[in-house]
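Example 3.
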Amino acid sequence: MSVTNDQIKLHGLKLEEYKKIKDLLGRESNLLELGIFSAMWNEHCSYKSSRIHLKKLPTKNEIVIQGPGENAGVIDIGDDDAIVFKIESHNHPSFIEPYQGAATGVGGILRDVFTMGARPIALMNSIHFGSPENSKTQNLLNGVVSGIGGYGNSVGIPTVGGEIKFNSTYNENILVNAMAIGHANKNKIFYSKAKGINKSVVYVGSKTGRDGIHGATMASAEFDENSDEKKPTVQVGDPFTEKLLLEACLELMKDNSIISIQDMGAAGLTSSSVEMASKGKLGIELDLNKVPCREKNMTPYEMMLSESQERMLLILEDDKEKEAKKIFDKWDLDFVVIGKTTDTNRLILNYDNKKVADIPIKALADKAPVYDRSWSKSKPIKNKVKVKDLKKIKIEDALIKILSSPNHSNKNWITDQYDQIVMCDTIQKSGGDSAVIRIHKKDKAIAVSVDSSANYCKADPKVGGKQIVCENWRNLISVGAKPLAITNCLNFGNPEKKEVMGEFVECLEGIKEACEFLNYPIVSGNVSFYNETNSKSIYPTPVIGGVGVIENLKKVIDINTKKTGNLILIIGKTIGHLDQSAFLQENFSIFDGPPPEINLTNEKNNGLAVLKLIKDNLVQSAHDISSGGILVSLAEMSMFSGLGLKIFKPKKLTNHIEYFFGEDQGRYLIEISPNNKSKVENILKKNNVFFDHVAEVQNDTFEIEKVLNLKIKDLHFYNNQWYKKYNGIN
Amino acid sequence: MKFEVTVTLKKDVLDPQGKVVSQTLKNIGIKNLTQVRQGKYFEIDVDEKDSSKAIDQVKEMCEKLLVNQIIEDFKIKKAG
Amino acid sequence: MKFEVTVTLKKDVLDPQGKVVSQTLKNIGIKNLTQVRQGKYFEIDVDEKDSSKAIDQVKEMCEKLLVNQIIEDFKIKKAG
Amino acid sequence: MKSSVIVFPGSNCDRDIAIALEKLQFKNSMVWHKETELPKSDLIVLPGGFSYGDYLRSGAIAAKSNILSEVVDAGKKGALVLGICNGFQILIECGLLKGALLRNSGLKFISKDIFVKVISNKNKFFNKYQSEEVLKLNIAHNEGNYFTNKEHLKELEDNDLIPIKYCNEKGEIDSNSNPNGSINNIAGIFNNNKNILGMMPHPERMSDKLLSSEDGLPLFLSLIN
Ligand SMILES: Nc1ncnc2c1ncn2[C@@H]1O[C@H](COP(=O)(O)OP(=O)(O)O)[C@@H](O)[C@H]1O
Ligand SMILES: [Mg+2]
C-alpha cells in the first residue's frame, strides 16, 4: 500500500522530496513512515533552509561548554557553575490559541533546559503583536500574557523580563519567543546522545494524546484563510505535570543512571528517538503497544506524531530501572520501558507484534534535505528623511508623545501578571536594562536581556543584525555584567522568497560580525520561518537573548538615580541620527530612512570602559541609550527613582531635536558622584572614550531650562496611561 | 429568561484538571470511577421575552466571550 | 453510567468571575443582559449499573471533594 | 525552634520559606505530603505555590492529603500553623480557617509588592511589629480575594482576628490599596485561638535586603520566644 501524491502534499513534502525518501528506503513508504519523514524533514526540525547559513556563526570560545546542537547551550561562569539557556519560538500556535500557544511555548523551553541537568532559574520572553488598533491584537495580547504567566507562575520559575512590541507588520502573525535559563553543575551536564546497545529506552511524563498532531508541520506552513481548519492541533499545557517532571528528572539526575535524555518537543516521540539514535550512531526499536496513551485506540501514526506536552525519553544504564521508577512513582508520573537501543542504525517500530515502520536513522537525520535557497541582496535605505516641520514640534510634547505610546509605555500591566520573585534570587526584576538573578546561595549573579529591532533590520538587515547584538551587549554592561554568550531566535517570512532569504542571510552576517568582534558566541537558538500570512511576510525579526556574569553581587548597577547633586555623564558620541527613531515614528508616523550605524570598535571600547568604571565603584546608576534617545533614557531613570534631573543643553549640536531624540548607537548614561568627577574623566580620556555632561540629579523636577519642565509624577502619569486605557481599566 | 450554559473541552483535548480530580477521588477511596472531565457552567439571565431571540443572544455571548471554540464546545439550555 | 454535575456558588456568596464576565459582555455590546453567574461542571462516568447506587457514589464525590459546601451548592443529573 | 514545611506536588515556595526559617536558626524539616506522621515541631508551615496545579479549587486537593489530617489535629491542639498564599487556601479548604478565597476581582494573576498594615500585634505571629506598622510584602496569586459572611466577619473584626490589612504606602486602607477585592481589605486571618494564621502576602520573599526589604523577618522572629 503506497502513499498518494495528495497524502505527500498534505504532509508538506514536495514530490521531489518524496522521491528522495523512496530512494533512501529502497521502496515506497507507508503512511506512518511518511508521517515520520514529514515530521523530521520539515523546516522546523530539519533547518533545511537555514542550516548552511547557521554554520557560519561563531559558536565557540573559552567559556562555551556546549554550543548549538543540543537541547540548549551551556556556558561556564566560574567555580563549578554552568548556565544553560535557549530561546524558542511558538509563533504559529500562539496566533491560533494565544493562551495555550504561549503556555506550551514556555513549557517546551523549560524542558529544553532541564533535560540538560539544569534547574531553571529564570524565564524571559520576546513578544510582538500587530498594531493595537487591529481588531485581533487585544485578545492575542491578553491571551499570550496570561499564558506565559499561567505556565511559569505555576511551575514556580520567575519570569523576570523580556520585551513587547507593537508593529502592524505582525497584524496577522504575532511572535511569541520564550527563553529559559537554568543553572547546573558544569560536571553534571546531561546530553541527548545515546550510548550502548540493548539499553532500555524509557518513556516518562504525561500520557500521549491526540494533541498537536502535525504541529511541527504547521509551524512550517504559512497561514491562509483556511488556517481555522488547523485548529484542533492545539496542544494544552499542564504546568502542574511539568513541575513534577522537572523535580523527578532532577532527582534522578543526582546519580549516574541516565545515559541520554531528550524532551519530546516538536514531532514528539519521533524526533526525540531519532535524535538520540542519530547522535549516538545507533538504532532504536520501540514497541508502540507500550506507549502510555490517554485515549483508546490510538494508532501508531498518532503516537509517533503526537505533540502531547510534558513528556521525556530516557536511556538508562543497566539495572537502574527499579530505582528510577521509584522516583517517578513518587511524583505520580508514568515510567515505562518502551524499547531498546540496537546496532541496526534503524528506527524500527512494532505494533501488535508486527513491524510497522523500518527506516534508516541516517535517512531521517543526516540525509534530510538541505537547501541553499537563492536570495537577493537587500537594498538598504540610504536616503535620510527630511522633515519640514521638525523644529515646530515642542520637545516637551514630543517626549510626552513617546512616553505615552504603546511601545514605550510602562509595562507593569504585563509584568504584574508574572511572578518575578519566586525562588527568591531575583535581584533585579524587569523594567531595567537586564534582569539580574543571583546564583543560589552564592555571591555572584547572572544578567539576562532579550532584544530585537525589526524596523532597523527591515531598513538594513546587516546593520540591524549588528545593532541588536550590540544593544543586547550594552544592556548587560549597564547592570555591571560581563557579557558572555547569546542565544537567538530568527523570526522571518517565507524562505522560498528571494527577498526574505536575502534578509535572513544579511541579518545573520551582521549578527556574526558583531558576535565575532565582541567575542560573544552563539550557543543555541531557533529559526522560525514562514511567518507570513496571505503572502505578506513579517519584517525580519531576529531576537537576541544574552547572558552575562556579575562576579560580585556588590557591583550590581541599576537605572535608579541615587542622589541629588550627582552628575549624569553620557558615554559615546551623539550625532543625532533621527531616521527610524521613536521620535519620527510617534510624532510624524515616519518609518523611513537608514538605521543608525554601528561602529564596533567604539561599541566595544565604550562598553568595556563603562564596565571598568562600575568595577571600580565609580558608577551609581547606569542606563543604555536606545529607542527614544537621550531624553527618553533620562526620563526612564527619573521615573524609576522618583528623583528629577536638570538637563543641560548641548554645547555643540545646535539642533536640539536631533540631540535629544537621536538614536546613535554605543551610548550609555552613567550617574557619578561629583567627588569622583576627575577620576572618572581621567579613565575615560585614557581609554579614548568620548563623554560629556548631560544632567545633574535634583529633586522632583525633570527639566531643561526654558524648554521642558515636568514633575516626576507627570512623567509617571503619561507613561502609565496606555495599557489601562487599552484594557478599559479605570 | 434564564439559561444554563455548559462549556466542555472538546473530545481528545487534554483536561489536566479532570485528570487530577479523578486521581484524587480514587486516592480518597471512591471506587468504580471511570472518568471525570471538568468544564464550566454559566447561569445567564436575559431580559428578553422572545425565547428564540433570547437563545440567539446567549449564543452570541458564548461565541464572543464565554467559549474558546478552538478547544471547547458548548450547550445552551433554557432553565427549568 | 454518566452523570452531569453542576456546582454553583451559593446565592449570597460574591461571584467575582460572574461579575467581570457580565461587565465584559456589556462592554462588547451585548444588550438585555441581567446577570451571569459562573460555576463548574463535571461529567462523571461511573462503572455501576444500579442507578441509585451510582447516584450515591456521585453524591459522595461531591461531598468529599468536588464541592466546597460552605460556599457552593450542587446538582446531579443523569446524562441523557 | 523546630519547624516543618509541608511539601505538596506543585508547591513552589517551599525552598524559599525554608531558607528564611533557617536564616533565623529554626531547625527545619521538609515533610512530603504522603507522610503520615509529623516530626515534632513548634511551627508547621504550609508554603505557597500551586499544589495540584490549583486545579478544582486552589488548596482543595492538598487538603485531602495524608499529612493534612496530622496538621489539622496539631492545629486543633494548639500548635502554631502558618499558611502562606496557597497554604492559606489549604487552611481554608481543610476547615482550620473559615471563609473562602475567591478569584481576584480583576480575574488576573497578580504579582507585585504591596503594603499591609499591622492591625493587631497582640499574638504570637506579629509581636515583633509595632501596631499600625506598614510593611512592604509581595503577593503572587490568582485566588486571594477573601470572602466571608457577615457574622463571621464581625467575629473576626471584634476579636482581633485580622492581623493585617492591605493599605497604601501611607497606611491608608481603602479600595485603591486593595489588590484583589478582599472584603475589608483583609490580607490574613487567625482562627479563634490565634495559633493558626493564613495570609496571602509572602513574608519569606521579604527576608533578604539584597532582594528587596526585610519586612517579613520580624514575623518569624516573633515566633521565637
Ligand atoms: N539561530 C540559531 N542559532 C544557533 N543555533 C541554532 C539556531 N537555530 C537552531 N539552533 C540549534 O539547532 C538545534 C535544534 O534546535 P531545535 O529544533 O529548536 O531544538 P528542539 O527540538 O530542542 O526544540 C539546537 O541545538 C539549537 O540550539
Ligand atoms: Mg529539545
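DSSP finds two helices and three strands in chain C. The two ends of chain C are 10 Å apart (CA to CA).
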